[in-house]
Amino acid sequence: MSFLDLVIRGGYVVLDTETTGIGQDAEIVQIAVIDSSGQTLLDTLVRPVRTIPADASRIHGITDAMVADAPTFPALMPKLIELLTGQDIIVYNATFDRRMFHTSAEACGLPKTEWKTLARWHCAMEFYAELWGEWNEWHQSYRWQKLTAAIYQQGIEIDVRAHSALGDCLMTLALIKKLAADD
């Protein structure tokens, strides 16, 4: 089944995270999951093991004080496994978010969960990059577009805050539904 066929069929979930950064020790500080109709299934802050760097807070607005009483990643694991097992998951940059699941678990000393085998992960960013068609000679692949750039390029007006997990889920859903409708 093609990516657009999946979008048209429905029955998938859209996931996004906000993190402490992009490095090998980054952790999730917010996670959201919505279904293919836009219903929120999970929207929560996450208390990381390490502090949130100021650079990350400037991007998503999440501070250590905001996550002080939030659940930890281990506390959220049962809910995440319940929500995601057997699902088609669409993520804007699926490889990154899946890696953040691993680094967050590692920071908490949890055993490795094979997220890639629990569910079918689909990357909206890679799909959009090929569709947009801007070739990168250096990398010999299509240039990735930021989610906000893709929204702008497609003329989508959406009243949500970028760089919140729920806002990015809703923008991803709006983008993929527009691409499916235009197909």
Can you put this structure into words, describing what you see?
This protein has one domain (3-182): Nucleotidyltransferase, domain 5. 45% of the residues lie in helices and 18% in strands. The protein is built from nine helices and seven strands. It has helices at 3-9, 54-60, 64-67, 73-84, 94-107, 115-118, 124-132, 147-153, 165-182; strands at 13-19, 28-35, 40-45, 88-91, 120-123, 135-136, 141-142. The strands form two sheets. Strands 3-2-1-4-5 form a five-stranded mixed sheet, sandwiched between helices. Helix 1 (3-9) packs across helix 9 and helix 8 packs parallel to helix 9. The longest helix has 18 residues, at 165-182. The two termini are 15 Å apart. The mean pLDDT is 95.
Compose a concise summary of this entry:
This protein has helices at 3-9, 54-60, 64-67, 73-84, 94-107, 115-118, 124-132, 147-153, 165-182, and strands at 13-19, 28-35, 40-45, 88-91, 120-123, 135-136, 141-142. The radius of gyration is 16 Å and the shape is globular. The chain has a 5-stranded mixed beta sheet, sandwiched between helices. Strands 6-7 form a two-stranded antiparallel sheet.
